[in-house]
Amino acid sequence: MKKISILGSTGSIGKNTIEVVNNHPDKFKVVGLAAKNNINLLQSQIQTLRPEVVAVFDEPAAAALRKMNLPVEILSGEQGLVSVATMEKADMVVSAIVGSAGLIPTYEAVKAGKDLALATKEALVMAGSIVISEASENGVRIIPVDSEHSAVFQCLHGRDMQEIRKIILTASGGSFLRKKISELDAVTPEEALRHPNWDMGRKITIDSATLMNKGLEVIEACWLFHLPPEKVEVVIHPQSIVHSMVEFVDGSIIAQMSVPDMKGPISYALSYPERFAGILPVLNLAEIRELTFEEPDLKKYPSLSLTYEAIRAGGTMPCVLNAANEVAVEAFLNRRISFTEIARVVSETMAQHKVLKTDNINTVLNASNWAQARAEEIINSKNSKKEI
Ligand code: MG
């Protein structure tokens, strides 16, 4: 019986994880749950899963949950999340908190020697060098939950890295694949949130439309698979059936395919190295008929170029890219900036950043805070110019 803590249990990955767990009650037991503030859902998760520890990030929400008199200890704040991430009983931590808030709990889980099913890509984007070296020191296994990285992980299975020419991450192209560049300035948050293939959270759906999500995944892949950025390529694949590929030195490419459903990669991360039956519906290729691939247009998706720039700059730059993007996406969702301004805010923030070495987690957090504040100022100055 594998004992699991879930960080981000009320989000899209968290809910899918619980579905996988519920389908295999003989294999998994949830011992810890952590969420931001959705206490109504958390309450029902507590009642069905009976975890031993629960943490709610927002203090008022934690207080409200405590009043419900559930048979479990309710912790709060970042320290609460860390307690769930490091709890003695957990064999594995599912790291699925959206955004930079997931960094510290994930990092602490690795320090505590917990195997990780990793969906919070920000942990590697912001602090890849620190998290990866800490994981290898503590013998921690990081198994990707991100569908692309799960695909690569499955294709690599036991191969010598010397045999790899490159990995190819597939991208759906997001909500605006067929829109012209000139049309992008006027798109609304509602349109951007309508993803054609994947049902995901708001932040990642916007990142999917700008291709920033793919850029963050390139950074994540470089750390997970120890590859330089020139060995990580992106190709647009609108059907989202091939989840990613590995090209070997002999010219062979191995791809992993399935219907687009996060329960696939989640289940593989939880059950690895086994595979459990009955997770996904059968993929009917004859019905799909066509799998197509195209090169991403970097003029249309400047965020993708920015991420390669950030990797090459190294140090704190990927962290700055990520933090500025979080602020810019939020500003777009709140109609403070247009869709195309997201990449401009990120680019301007990066241009003003002086890269530092990421030798400890505080350097990373300081860079992230700096970038959030700077991006906010850039957005405000854009808006005040508009008002004039
Ligand atoms: Mg992904």
Describe the protein's topology.
Elements: E1 2-7, H1 12-23, E2 28-35, H2 39-49, E3 53-56, H3 59-66, E4 73-76, H4 77-86, E5 92-95, H5 103-111, E6 115-118, H6 122-137, E7 142-144, H7 147-156, E8 164-171, H8 189-192, H9 202-210, H10 212-225, E9 232-236, E10 242-248, E11 253-257, H11 263-271, H12 285-288, H13 302-313, H14 317-333, H15 341-351, H16 361-387
Parallel strand pairs: 1-2, 1-5, 2-3, 3-4, 5-6, 6-7, 8-9
Antiparallel strand pairs: 8-10, 10-11
Bound molecules: magnesium ion.
Fold and architecture overview:
With 388 residues, the protein is of the alpha/beta class. The chain has three domains: 2-140, Rossmann fold; 147-260 and 281-299, no CATH class; 314-388, Orthogonal Bundle (Rna Polymerase Sigma Factor, Chain: A). Helices cover 47% and strands 15% of the residues. A seven-stranded parallel beta sheet has the order 4-3-2-1-5-6-7, sandwiched between helices. Strands 9-8-10-11 form a four-stranded mixed beta sheet, with helices on one face. The protein is globular, with a radius of gyration of 20 Å. 49% of the residues are buried. The model has no long low-confidence stretch (mean pLDDT 96). Bound molecules: magnesium ion (MG). Magnesium ion binds at residues 146-148, 217. Magnesium ion is lined by residues 146-148, 217.
Give the CATH class of the largest domain: Alpha Beta
| Mean pLDDT, all residues | 96
How many runs of DSSP E, i.e. beta strands? Answer: 11
Radius of gyration: 20 Å
Biggest β-sheet strands, sense, barrel: 7 strands, parallel
What sequence of helices (H) and strands (E) makes up the elements? EHEHEHEHEHEHEHEHHHEEEHHHHHH
What's the helix count?
16
Which descriptor suits the 3D outline? Answer: globular
Question: Into how many domains do the coordinates divide?
Answer: 3
Structural class: alpha/beta
Can you say what the CATH homologous superfamily of the largest domain is? NAD(P)-binding Rossmann-like Domain
Percentage of residues assigned to helices = 40-55%
Bound compounds, each kind once, are: magnesium ion
Strand adjacency order, main sheet: 4-3-2-1-5-6-7
* CATH architecture label name of the largest domain: 3-Layer(aba) Sandwich
CATH topology-level name of the largest domain: Rossmann fold
Distance between the termini: 63 Å
Low-pLDDT runs of 5+ residues are none
Strand content: 5-15%
